[in-house]
Amino acid sequence: MGLGLLFIALQTPPPVGGLLLMAALLTLAVGFAAAAGYQIVARRSRPESAFHGASPLLLLGIQLVISVAFGIAWLVLGVPDPSGSAIGFLVIALTLLVSYFLVVWIFGVRSGAVSWRDMGVPVPASASRLLGDIGLGVATMLVVWPLVTVLTALLALTLNSRPPDVVPQVQGGFDILLTAIGAAFLVPIGEELLFRGYALTAWLRDRGPRSALVRSTLFFAFAHVLGVTAATFDEGVRQAVLTVVVITPVGATLGWLFLRRGLVASIAGHATFNLIGVLLIALAQNLPQISPPAG
């Protein structure tokens, strides 16, 4: 029913279309939440060592519905478009973090399926342990980032495509700061909570480390494909292929960091990867344009 309402809403002009869209999102959220609740109850009879929580796919569905609903609300309230505004981007990044936290907390921690410690949060944590985790995450991603960048460039040339734009056009230092906070702090924390803290932990209990790493990596890539937007179907397919090939080694590295050192290390690696990208994009956007000599 929710998908049917969503299709009708997209074909209906405002304001009726907007109301139908919110109704469709509410229906989808209730449906996903009910399915997650049913799984939690049904899995209580599983062996103690097995995972007792809801499927990570259901949590991703709930998170997507929440973030889309809030995104629409922010636009209605006049929050700038995140594709062209650093302030709007920061608001959306904060919304994503809150939505990730809520679904993991409600369906993971509150349900008793996992604890924060189970998800790799070092509680309590010494300063030396935190610094070690952060250092490993940063150092690992400093090695991986150039390799992924070369792979991205080669594949983009082969496919005659380019990665989707994920950060807005920045105009100065303040815009760069806001974008960096959103992309290299808020987004990594939220994504690592779900994709490594919850999903990898869930599959680790049921499938073992190797299968859990593969599944969480593909899950991470799939989620990023959902964010691909393109003017044509052909360009969308090429961007999706590019996204999967590029995101897969990043997700595998973050999963390895999580298995080795926990959530802080994977967050640090994710933040490092995103921060380098933001700074280089900002540099490229603000380089002076050199005009060819006249004559």
In percent, how helical is the residue content? Answer: over 70%
Total DSSP helices? 9
Distance between the termini: 65 Å
Please give the number of β-strands. Answer: 0
SS class: mainly alpha
The oligomeric state is single chain
Shape assignment: globular
- Return Rg in Å: 20 Å
Order of helices and strands, N to C? HHHHHHHHH
> How large a portion of the residues is in β-strands, by DSSP E?
under 5%
Mean pLDDT over all positions: 86
Main beta sheet strand tally, sense and closure:
none
Low-pLDDT ranges: 1-17, 289-295
Short description:
This protein has 295 residues and is an all-alpha fold. Helix content is 75%, strand content 0%.
Task: Describe the protein in words.
By secondary structure, the chain is mostly helical. The protein is built from nine helices and no strands. The chain has helices at 2-11, 16-42, 56-76, 86-109, 127-159, 173-207, 209-225, 233-261, 263-286. Helix 2 runs antiparallel to helix 3.
